[in-house]
Amino acid sequence: MTSAVGVDGCKAGWIAVHRDPGASPSVCVFASFAALLDALPADAIMAVDMPIGLPDFSQRGGRGPEALVRPLLGARQSSVFAIPSRTALYADTNDFTTIEAWYAAHRRASEVAKATSDPPRGVSIQAFGIFAKIREIDALLIARPELRTRVFESHPEVAFCRLNGEKPMTLPKKIKGAVNPAGMEERKALLCRHGYVRDFLDRPPPKGAAADDFLDAAAMMLIAARIASGEARSFPDPPLADRFGIPVAIWA
């Protein structure tokens, strides 16, 4: 058996829920994805809530995986957003010292995104907020091709749907940016049906991560285990590939 790791981005970097064969899960926050890789077993399979494999040109609906998974999610499909072009993602890679500079960079990325999409489409604030993390994984997968058989893209709501017998969650996880306790409870109950102990899920998240980040990483770990065992499905099947040969698919 192989170690399974579920990963989500968080304020402090990356939150990872990790389970070795025969052991209880653990959770930790890492400042960088490279640090996460260094700290975990070299053969661990990882499912990450982050877009992997970037388009040169953005079509309506996204790269392909997005259009395939949205119909599965019912009212939760808005959680799957289209990924802009690689040039838009790399339009401004500066560290921002002021909020004004951050918004200016967002505007520049949106202009590049509009010029490299059909129909022309800018970049949402939500998407722009994770550009640095998308680039972080992208750079590692370009530099270290061997990681492409260990690091897989997933998506929490697709994961919850697949774990729930192909039925999407009925309640939102967040409402107007705030955690929805009823939606969190619905997902915790599902995760417990798949082997988690309630005390683990009820613990406070590590410093630098939010409660929903923790829950999403816990779901990602189950998907990593399914990938390792051959039970997971890729959308599309087989995966596409970007111009660097990085696989483009959402796994669940």
Can you offer a commentary on this structure?
This is DUF429 domain-containing protein. It comes from Mesorhizobium neociceri. Strand 8 and strand 9 form a beta hairpin. The longest helix is centred in the C-terminal third of the chain and has 19 residues. This protein has a single domain, classed as 2-Layer Sandwich (Nucleotidyltransferase, domain 5). The strands form four sheets. The protein has a five-stranded mixed β-sheet. The protein is α/β, with parallel strands linked by helices and 252 residues long.
What brief labels describe this structure?
38% helix, 19% strand, Nucleotidyltransferase, domain 5, 252 residues, 10 helices
Distance between the termini: 19 Å
Give the second-level CATH assignment, the architecture.
2-Layer Sandwich
Assign the CATH topology.
Nucleotidyltransferase, domain 5
Number of domains: 1
For the secondary structure, the number of strands is 11
Given the structure, what is the number of helices?
A: 10
> Helix and strand succession?
EEEHEEHHHEHHEHEEHHHEE
Helix content: 25-40%
Question: Strand order, biggest sheet?
Answer: 3-2-1-4-7
Average of per-residue pLDDT values: 95
CATH class annotation: Alpha Beta
Topology of this protein?
Blueprint: E1 4-10, E2 13-19, E3 26-30, H1 33-39, E4 45-49, E5 58-59, H2 65-69, H3 86-89, H4 99-115, E6 117-118, H5 125-128, H6 131-143, E7 151-153, H7 156-163, E8 174-175, E9 178-179, H8 181-193, H9 198-202, H10 211-229, E10 234-241, E11 247-251
Parallel strand pairs: 1-4, 4-7, 5-6
Antiparallel strand pairs: 1-2, 2-3, 8-9, 10-11
